[in-house]
TrEMBL record:
Record-annotated active site: H578 (proton donor), H621 (proton acceptor)
Every Glucose-methanol-choline oxidoreductase N-terminal domain range: 117-140
Protein name: Glucose-methanol-choline oxidoreductase N-terminal domain-containing protein
Originating species: Chaetomium fimeti
Recorded superkingdom: Eukaryota
Positions bound to FAD: T47, S48, V119, V278
Signal peptide residue numbers: 1-19
InterPro entries associated with the record: FAD/NAD-bd_sf (IPR036188), GMC_OxRdtase (IPR012132), GMC_OxRdtase_N (IPR000172), GMC_OxRtase_C (IPR007867)
Residues involved in substrate binding: Y576
Family the entry assigns: Belongs to the GMC oxidoreductase family.
């Protein structure tokens, strides 16, 4: 495969200073620059939205596509880009929403801190670049949640692993590392998991911190098996994970480049409107059976709002928080809530803004009591000479040094049967909740009690979660390790559910997030089991040889169930930045918002394509899944409109 090094020009594109007038011409900033109507309007220029826009404008050169983005076109700073010298030291205030949830009572009233992209490219422009896929069992559960729906059977749309895997493969180009790098780190991969046809790049970095193998050695001592490749649906074990970066320059590869700047120059049917917000979709006279709706756009500069008419359909890709907010502003959502904030109900869909959940978990921490025989370590970045060399290395071709790693590229995924002998008790508890509407509703947000379809949908989710937790090949726990002394114990399939509700005082700002973390007590049992398991790292020769002394939870807390639970409650990170599922793909009688074709139930000409459509979280960070969902959604849309054009 030929690798092109076009990143410097692409950065110029993102600054809108490239000489090609078509590129700058396709970027719109005010109403006067727009057409009177478009065939497709996409709300949100994020990971999935730009993927869909790319595919539609390519497949239908005679159809016009408008993408509306709240943010700007810019080279957004990631969490570890020069000149940043410590992780998380960069500021994304202009490029991302930094949101706090309401307090979670079960976690000592702590709040969840979560970031979402506010830039062309969405969260793929600012995330940690960890580019993994979930387990095949995760996506199989999605499909089973659709299996009882006549809609799914009629349309024959398969959301199982076999149904989405081709789109995972299509969505990324993976370049193996140079032979010397592969030998140095014992990297493994399987190129058959990638099609290499898309300008979204992934690669294995040429740099690891000096203590990286402490974590991997400890995990192997614990009996965790290495996996050659974890992108093929089989994810139990110790994995190498690609970074979403260009294989030569190591610059971030994201949708703003791979699905916009790389392709927009020769697409006259593609318009990108920045610094505007989709305020709502408008069905004349409230008739949602006659669509597509109008799109009301709100300029951020304070100019009057205006409408755009749409010929084919509207695609909401505004993200887990933005999409339910648009729907709720449009009068599409839970009727009781809409009435409480004086929004006329256009379509009662209780699932809009429900089903919010995220990966969460505490950390296991230790200190070393002996000098570390490793170089380099992140602390070396505090040395001005080393930091300057690191920045210079990143600007070489090919790029070298710490900045090529991003956050991490190594982790374990372990199933509950391989974590605790008590897994059957936990699974039985989940199944008992699934079999009783009263038991299922007991720990849900109060709003669920006003609609039996939400409870029925949650029961269906619980059935799938019980099956996942009983499966010795389906991961329950994730822990990443790149360097340091505090790996997290991520709960991959939480049972607790929260809400995203429109901010009645500031309706055009992000919604109010109520995470309700650990409100279902099964989550606490899982957190405790995961913490006990991950503590085993500190008993390995790999760590003891360095004089590792456990700090959290510590031996005293681990020996007392109440103390251990108290540690989990005060130390759990409520969001690992993977929120999901607020416009879930579930049948209407299960509280769903969209069907298997991603069309909003009961709303003609309106579709959702972002991570809000997931019914339950996969065992993965979400960037790769967002691309695959975008690719699959584009395929569904193109197939539909191609068939209609042939009739």
């Amino acid at each position: 495969m030929k690798i092109t090094n076009s990143i410097p020009c692409l950065f110029a594109v993102l600054r809108l200073t490239c000489a090609n007038p078509q590129i700058t011409g396709n970027v719109k900033r005010q109403a006067s620059q727009l057409l009177d109507s478009y065939d497709f309007v996409i709300a949100g220029a994020g990971t999935s939205g730009l993927t869909v826009a790319d595919r539609l404008t390519e497949a239908f050169p005679d159809k016009t596509v408008l993408v509306v983005e709240y943010g700007e076109i810019e080279n957004a700073r990631g969490v570890f880009d020069p000149p940043t010298i410590v992780w998380g030291g960069s500021s994304n205030s202009a490029s991302g929403w930094l949101l706090n949830s309401t307090p979670s009572p079960e976690l000592n009233n702590a709040t969840a801190l979560v970031m979402a992209g506010k830039v062309v490219g969405g969260s793929s422009a600012i995330n940690g670049q960890f580019f993994d896929r979930g387990s095949r069992f995760d996506y199989d559960s999605w499909d089973r949640l659709q299996s009882g729906s006549p809609d799914a059977r009629k349309k024959n749309i398969d959301w199982s692993w076999d149904g989405i895997y081709p789109f995972f493969k299509k969505s990324v180009t993976f370049t193996p590392p140079p032979e010397a790098v592969a030998r140095k780190y014992n990297y493994t991969w399987d190129t058959s998991a990638f099609d290499n046809v898309t300008p979204i790049h992934a690669s294995l970095p040429p740099f690891l911190w000096g203590d990286h193998f402490v974590g991997r050695d400890a995990w192997e001592e614990m009996g965790i098996q290495r996996s050659q490749e974890c992108a093929n649906g089989d994810k139990e074990g110790l994995c190498w994970i690609p970074i979403s970066g260009h294989p030569v320059t190591a610059r971030r590869s994201y949708s703003g480049i791979g699905h916009y700047a790389d392709v927009v120059a020769d697409r006259p049917n593609y318009h990108l409107l920045v610094k505007h917000q989709v305020a709502r979709v408008v069905y004349p006279e409230g008739d949602t059976k006659s669509g597509p709706p109008l799109v009301e756009l709100r300029p951020l500069a304070g100019d009057p709002s205006f409408n755009i008419s749409v010929k084919n359909e509207v695609v909401l890709s505004a993200g887990v928080f933005g999409t339910p907010a648009i729907l709720q502003r449009s009068g599409i959502g839970p009727a009781a809530f809409l009435e409480s904030v004086d929004i006329p109900v256009v379509l009662d869909l209780p699932g809009v803004g429900s089903n919010l959940h995220d990966h969460s978990g505490p950390r296991v921490t230790w200190n070393y009591t002996k000098p570390l025989p490793f170089y380099p370590l992140p602390s070396d970045m505090l040395n001005a000479t080393f930091a300057a060399e690191a920045a210079a290395g990143f600007n070489q071709t090919p790029a070298q040094g710490p900045y090529t790693l991003a956050m991490s590229n190594s982790a374990i995924w372990i199933s509950l049967p391989n974590i605790t002998a008590d897994y059957a008790t936990i699974v039985d508890t989940i199944r008992a909740q699934a079999q009783s509407p009263d038991a299922a509703a007991l720990h849900l947000p109060p709003a669920y009690n006003t609609d039996p379809t939400l409870i029925a949908g949650y029961q269906a989710q619980l059935e799938q979660l019980a099956a996942l937790y009983a499966n010795p090949r389906s991961p329950s726990l994730e822990s990443t390790f790149s360097t340091g002394t505090s790996p997290g114990a991520l709960l991959l399939h939480p049972l607790s559910r929260g809400t995203a509700r429109l901010n009645a005082t500031h309706p055009f700002e992000p919604p109010v997030l109520d995470y309700r973390s650990a409100s279902n007590p099964v989550d606490m049992a899982l957190h405790v089991a995961h913490t006990r398991y991950l503590r085993r790292m500190t008993a390995t020769d790999a760590l003891r040889g360095l004089g590792a002394v456990e700090v959290g939870p510590g031996e005293a807390a681990a020996a007392d169930e109440e103390l251990l639970e108290a540690y989990v409650r005060r130390s759990t990170v409520q969001s690992y930045m993977h929120p999901c599922c607020t416009a879930a793909m579930l049948p209407l009688d299960k509280g769903g918002v969209v069907g298997s074709d991603l069309k909003v139930h009961g709303a003609v000409g309106l579709r959702v394509v972002d991570m809000s459509m997931m019914p339950i979280l996969p065992a993965a960070h979400l960037s790769a899944t967002a691309y695959a969902v975008g690719e699959k959604a584009a395929h569904i849309i193109i197939e539909q409109w191609t068939e209609q054009g042939e009739e």
